[in-house]
Amino acid sequence: MSIKHNEPKFTDAATMACRGAVEHRATWMALLYEQAKKQGADAEKMCREAIRKCGHIHGDTMWKPQCADPASAADFGNAFFSGQGAKNMEIDVLEATHDDLVAEFHQCPLVQAWEKLGYEGEELKLLCDMAMDGDRGIADQMGLTLDIEKTIAAGDGCCHLHFHK
Questions:
Q1: What's the total number of domains in the chain?
Q2: Domain span at residue 131?
């Protein structure tokens, strides 16, 4: 099952190359998850902890240093939802205040990668939620909480993220 509303609008070479790198990352994640399950590990717990730790590292080393005011959700949004990354995921920022940052992602190369591997339904939603632990980890480091209200993996028209104090 291909999620039709996940077709990209932007297809320039740079964006497609970046999406390819994100798909590669998603493929690794899914294959590591599957292998851990086969070897009897608590694969979900292992993935969630590792991915959240990666988010903590990125929050501290990538995003916090780019913020004039690291306590501001709006400043975080200016850094996090800018440049090529925003184009890759076709992000619209709906609200950006000191305490709240709301954005919608209209394209997800991770979901595309997982679908190519044959994932669908609950497995697809689980992989997505585990991957979002990276974003949750970034939020932790920024002093924010992340609520994910909709996801492309669940068949919604977008991923709706709300970072807040």
A1: 1
A2: 10-164
Structure confidence at residue 4 as a pLDDT band (50, 70, 90): low
Q: Do 63 and 77 touch, CB atoms closer than 8 A?
A: no
Q: What distances in angstroms separate CA 158 from CA 36, 45, 119, one per listed residue?
A: 30, 26, 18
69 occurs within a structural domain: yes
DSSP letters, the chain, are ---GGG--S---HHHHHHHHHHHHHHHHHHHHHHHHHHTTS-HHHHHHHHHHHHHHHHIIIIIGGG-SSTT-HHHHHHHHT-HHHHHHHTEEEEEE-SSEEEEEE---HHHHHHHHTT--HHHHHHHHHHHHHHHHHHHHHTT-EEEEEE-TTTT-SSEEEEEE-
Measured at the CA of 42, the angle between CA 37 and CA 45, to 5 degrees, comes to 120
For residues 89-104, give the mean pLDDT. Answer: 97
Report the predicted TM-score, pTM, of the whole model to 2 decimal places: 0.93
